[in-house]
Amino acid sequence: MSAKDAKTPRVFLIRHGETEWSQNGRYTGITDLPLLELGQERIRQTASVVFGFNRLIDPRNIVATFASPRRRAQHTLELLIERITDEETREVFESTVQTTEQIAEFGYGDYEGLKTHEIRALRHQRGLDRDTPWDIGRDGTEGPGGELPDQVAKRLDQLIDQIVSLQGEVLRSNANVLDGDTKGKGDILIVARKCIYYFDICLFDRCLTSIEMAIFFAFSSKGGLDCQWTPNWS
């Protein structure tokens, strides 16, 4: 990472570990399932590599942590916090945590707990999608608690506004201002699930017209780096 990037506030997105439904392909929104042992272990493995002092995600540099209210996301966050052995640092990090519905999973409504082929069959019975198969990113969901893509994008955009506000001052500062105590600080951590992909889309859309966030990373629940993006600063 260049010296310039090292001073740039970043956004880290971590997907929660696997649950029974995520493992077998069922859409999980408000159903509060626990993490499987496998899901917990994979989060621990990911955390051991990327989370901790002088690692990619250094808790001392985090100014805000946004987490879905669902049990699976909260447990994932707890597993990350376990990595912080210094009590003072842990207390400071925990003070940054905000549990918010803005980053909650897509509202699946009638499709909660169903698999993709079951949803498509249900919609076909309702006279929908005669020509084009159902796609959640285009068609959204039905029934009480269901959401359309633009509704999800709207709440995620509100979260992005908060992040832009938090990081804006750091991004506008020059290298001299970033020297000293503020150097390297300003990172944001987000813990959620599939909603993260819609966050990515909203983020890309915002950054196409203005450089508001410099770098973001998304980590899968299987321990890998899903994506990394850095805008052109030249």
TrEMBL record:
* Residues that, per the record, bind substrate: T28, G29, R72, E105, F106, G107, Y108
Q: Which residues form the active site?
A: H16, E105
- Write down the CDD domains for this protein, in alphabetical order: HP_PGM_like
| Any GO MF annotation of the entry | sedoheptulose-bisphosphatase activity
The positions making up the signal sequence are: none
Q: Which GO biological process categories is it annotated with?
A: ribose phosphate biosynthetic process
Extract the InterPro entries matched here: His_Pase_superF_clade-1, His_PPase_superfam, PGM_Phosphatase
Protein name as it appears in the record: Phosphoglycerate mutase
Source organism of the structure? Exophiala mesophila
